[in-house]
Write a structure and sequence with these properties.
With 264 residues, this protein is α+β, with helices and mostly antiparallel strands. It has helices at residues 9-22, 59-71, 85-96, 139-150, 156-165, 212-226, 241-249, and strands spanning 27-31, 34-38, 49-51, 78-82, 100-101, 106-112, 132-136, 171-177, 183-192, 195-203, 231-237, 253-262. Helix 4 runs antiparallel to helix 5.
């Protein structure tokens, strides 16, 4: 894994702190140097241990405590690791202790919101009235659209809803809607610490490649600037080239990566 430049560490730390607030776990516990998060198995980000000042000399003493936290909750012990020197050293030690590398490393991409006012959302390609960017009033209404677009119903969506309802920063539950009100694309924007995080961006499979994702993200960027945000970030699976290309066209550039190691 590539190492993040030292000069970028302050930016990484700010985004990491914003991300913790913007994607809340149902349970968190801190021990010296570590943040442990659990949410009944829904999303690795909220069911893993992250370094919070830990160093390699602590790992042998802390590992039994960390593993016990997860096993007591019926979860596999899992670590979320960044492309920073300290985390890379811990990553090597975990590999030596039998922790396997998960095969979906993520890229964290960022862009500035400073400067002139952002342009209005680009109109999606449509033969009729163009779809419109809209903000919904509550998490439940938005999640219903997300479940339909993703075709992803199931009991885990109740955990998803609890996490959305736990959000305290300014949050935009956004849709791109057709003239008849049908939800064609959805996304979530959360502003924490002057940083906009983009989450759960999805487009109905029947309406892809029509500019809906671009218009949705542009709408969220403009909303966040009105909220006083100066930076936007998102997390995308690094080998999802179509999504990475979309975000690059929107002005995002990769800042660092993260990945997981798990056991059991």
């Amino acid at each position: 894994m590539a190492t993040a430049p030292t000069a970028a560490r302050a930016a990484i730390d700010a985004i990491e702190q914003a991300g913790l607030v913007s994607w809340p776990a149902l349970e968190e516990q801190r021990i010296t140097g570590w943040l442990l998060r659990a949410s009944q198995g829904y999303t690795r980000r909220t069911n893993s241990a992250s370094t919070a000042g830990a160093h390699t000399g602590q790992l042998d003493a802390d590992l039994p405590l960390i593993e016990r936290f997860f096993t007591q909750r019926g979860l596999p012990p899992t670590f979320r690791l960044l492309s920073t020197p300290d985390d890379l050293a811990i990553d090597r030690m975990l590999a030596q202790r039998g922790y396997r590398l998960c095969n979906d490393p993520c890229s964290v991409m960022v862009r500035s919101l400073a400067g002139d006012a952002l342009a209005p959302p680009s109109p999606p390609r449509s033969s009729g009235a163009p779809p419109q960017f809209a903000l919904l009033p509550d998490a439940q209404t938005w999640l219903s659209a997300f479940v339909r677009i993703k075709d992803d119903d199931g009991p885990h969506q109740q955990i998803h809803l609890a996490m959305l309802r736990a959000l305290t920063p300014p949050t935009a539950f956004a849709l791109m809607r057709a003239g008849d009100g049908e939800a064609l694309a959805c996304g979530l924007g959360v502003v924490a610490g002057k940083h906009l995080g983009l989450f759960d961006i999805a487009t109905d499979p029947a309406h892809r490649r029509q500019g809906l994702g671009t218009a949705l993200c542009e709408g969220l960027l403009a909303w966040a600037r009105d909220q006083g945000a100066h930076t936007a970030y998102l997390q995308v699976v690094a080998d999802n080239h179509q999504a990475v290309d979309l975000y690059r066209r929107l002005g995002f550039e990769a800042l660092y990566r993260y990945w997981y190691r798990t056991r059991g």
